[in-house]
Here is the input.
Amino acid sequence: MSNAAPARRRSLRERIGFRERIRDRDTAVYGILILLALMFPLVSYNITEGTAWISHATRAGYWVLLAIGLNVVVGFAGLLDLGYAAFFAIGAYTYALLASPQLASSPANHAVHISFWILIFVSLMMAALFGAILGFPTLRLRGDYLAIVTLGFGEIVPQLFYNFDQWTGGINAVGLIDQPLLPAWVQGPWSGDPEFKIVSPFNFNTDPVAYYVLVCFLVAIAVVLVTNLYNSRLGRAWMAIREDEVAAAAMGINTVTTKLLAFGIGASFSGFAGAYYAADVALVSPDNFLFIVSITVLVMVVLGGMGNVSGVIIGALVMYYLIFILIPGLPEIVTGFASNVGLGSLNQSTGDWPGLGEETQRLNFIIYGGILVAVMLLRPQGLLPSRVREQELKHAAVQEEEAAIEMSHA
Amino acid sequence: MSEQPRDNILELTGLTKRFGGLVAVDNVSLHIKRGEVFALIGPNGAGKTTLFNNVTGLFRPTSGNVLFDGRDITGFKPHQVARLGIARTFQNIRLFDYMSCLDNVRVGRHVRMKAKVWDSLFKLPRERREEERVTDEAMEVLRFVGIAKHANQYARNLAYGQQRRLEIARALATEPKLLLLDEPAAGFTPQEKVELMALVKKILNRGITVFLIEHDMKVVMGISERIVVLDHGEKIAEGSPEEVRNDTKVIEAYLGKSA
Here is the structure.
C-alpha cells in the first residue's frame, strides 16, 4: 500500500506533462510560423528591395502542401508512396488544361477557361479519384511491394502526359495558363507600391505577394483539416493500421477502405498543390513531375518528422532552402569566401582544376547527399518528430543496447 | 434447460482448416450457449488459436460453417465479424504500442462510431459530441478493467498484466456479444489469475458470453461451465469441468498414453 500512493501521484504528473508537452510545442511552432509568415513579405521587401524572396516563398509553399499531403499517407497510415508526384501532376494538368488555350489545339477544338477557385476543387477531386483508382487494386500489397507499385505509377503518369500530346502538348508543355482573379485586392509597400491602394478587379498576374498570401491560406487550411483528421476516428484507424493491421481488422476497422482513404486524401492535397503550382508558374510540362519530385517530398516528410504536421512543414521549408537556395548559391559563397581569406588563386581554373566555384557546382549532389546522411545520423527521428516516432526509436536503441550487452555476455 | 437453437450464440459445424497437408482443425463441431463461459483447451499445437482465427475471419475455413447468433458468418472479413459482435484478444498481446491506452480503447469504439470523413475534416458539432461521448465511454471501459489511471500512457509502457487488461478493454469497447480470450492468464501470477477470474465474472454479468482458450487448469476449472478439448485439431472431449477432468482421452492427450 505504501508504494501505491507515490506511484499514483507520479503517474498523474506524467499524464499532465505528457498532454501539455504535445500541446505546447505545437502551439509554439504554429505561433512562430504564423508570425514569420505575416512579417516575411514586408521584411524581405525592405531587405532585398524586390520580390525575389517572396517568389521563393510562394514556391516553397507548394512543397509544404505536398509534404503535408504525403505525411497523411506515409506518416499517419504508414504506407510508403514513392509515386506521389503523379497526383501532383494530375492536379496541375487538370488546372492547366481547363484554364488555358491548350484545348483549342486539341481534338476538342475549344479552349476552356474555368475560374481558379472552382478548378482548385476539381483538381483536388481528380487527384483523389486517381489516388483511389491506384489504391483500390494495390493496397492489399504491403510495405515494399506497395512502394514498388506506387513507384511505377509515378513513372507512368508523366509518360502519359508526354504521349497524349494531342491533348497535353506533350513535350511542348502547356503554357499561357490563366491566373486567378479576385474581385478586389489591397496593394501596398510590400509589393513595391509606395502607398496603399485597392485594386479591383484584381488579376494575380505576376504578383508574387498575391501568390504568397494565397499559398499561406492554402497551407493554413491544409493544416487545420489534417489536424482535424489526425484527432478523429479516421486518424486513429490509420494509426492502428500502422501499428498492427491484424489487430486493427479484428477491432472492426475495414483496413482496405481506411487505407484507400489515406491514399485518396493524401492525393487530394497534392492535387490542391498542383492547381496552385500550375497557376503560379503558368507553364506545366511533364518534366516537372519526375521521380525526383516524389523523393524530395518524401525526404521533406522523413527529415521533418514523420507523422507530425508541424515537423513536416519545417522539414519542407528547410529542404526547400537547402535544395533551391543554399546549394545552387554555394559556388558563389565558396568563391567569395576563398578570395576573402586570401585563397583567391583557387578560383582560377588551371590545368585539370576547374576553379573552386565550378568544382563546388560539380559536387552539389555529393554535398546534398552528405547533408541528408548527416541529418539522418544525427537526428534519425526528424527535426521535429512526432512523439510516437521519438519513442519508437528510443525503444529500438534500448533494445539494440540490450542485445549488444547480451552478446558480450554470451 | 431448453435446448433451442436460439440459445446458442455460436455454433461450429464440421469446421476444418487445412494448411497444405496439415490439418490444423479437423471437423470440429461445438456450440456455445448464450451467457456461459466456454473453454477450449488442449496441448500446444492442438489448433485452438487456429479455431479462433477461423471464427473471427482471419482465416477462411476449408470446410464447415460458423453460425453466430443464428447467422452464417463463414468467410466473413474480420471487420465484419467484429461489427456483428465478436471481439477477441490475442495470445501474443497485439496492442497498438505507440498509441495511448485511451486511444487503444477508442479504436475499439471505432466500429460503433458514425463520424464520416466530412464530419472529421471539418470537426462538425456532431463529430465533436461523438468524440466526447466516445472518450467518456472509453474511460468507463478502462475503469471497468481497472487501468484508468494509465489512460494517457503509451500501451507499450504498461506492465504486462496491464497490457492484458488493456487488450480486454479494447475488445469490450467494440460492444461484443461474444468475447474470445486467447490465453488471458498466460504469464500471470496466482494473484493476477484470481483477479482475472473476477474480471471474467464481471464481463459475464454485462451479458457477454465468454469463449476462452486457456492452459491454466485452475483458471479453466474455476470459471468455465463447459469445456471442449482439442488434440491434433480434433475434438476429443466435451463436457463440464468435472467430466473432462476424468476423461481418459484427455488424460492421454496431456500426459501420454502410459499414464
User: Anything to note?
Assistant: Chain B has a mean pLDDT of 91. The interface with chain A takes residues 56, 58, 77-79, 82-83, 87-88, 90, 94-99, 103, 106-108, 110-111, 113, 115, 117, 119-123, 127, 130-131, 149-154, 156, 170-171, 174 of chain B (CB under 8 Å). The first strand of chain B starts at residue 8 and ends at 19.
